[in-house]
Design goal:
- With 131 residues, the protein is an all-alpha fold.
- The chain has one domain (11-129).
- The chain contains 8 helices and no strands.
- The chain is globular.
Length: 131
């Protein structure tokens, strides 16, 4: 049964939903959550809770469910995700395979056109993700 996702009203609620998403390994529900979450609120909602597993399911959800439909929104989420506390730490701990997942998402976004980002924007964000 599909996980029901609602718009979180606090960082605590956001964390609860993310935990449920993680427990179910539910990329579709994660994509739903990201779709209703304002990208610029991500750093606040994640507070200091960002972990490799969370980053990865976000990346996979963006890649499999959002980048094709709404590349601009996917880009915004990637951008604000990189502003989250612990981002650098989590990034440093990603394996080679996990890094390749991130690269695939960037490749997908570079194939798509959006008025939300330019090729230059994408290139500079790639550097932030150390790709």
């Amino acid at each position: 049964e599909k996980l029901r996702v609602w718009k979180p009203s606090s960082a605590y609620e956001f964390g609860q939903i993310v935990n449920a998403v993680m427990a179910n390994k539910d990329e579709a529900a994660c994509a739903d959550l990201l779709t209703i979450t304002e990208p610029k609120t991500l750093p606040v909602l994640l507070s200091n809770k960002l972990e490799g597993e969370i980053l990865l399911i976000f990346i996979q959800s963006l890649e499999h469910y959002m980048a094709g439909k709404d590349p601009g929104l996917a880009y915004q989420h990637l951008f604000y995700l990189s502003k989250a506390e612990r981002f650098k730490v989590v990034l440093a701990l990603l394996s080679k395979n996990e890094k390749e997942e991130v690269q695939q998402l960037f490749d997908l976004l570079s194939e798509r056109q959006s008025d939300q980002y330019s090729w230059e924007d994408l290139e500079s964000l790639k550097k932030v993700y150390e790709l």
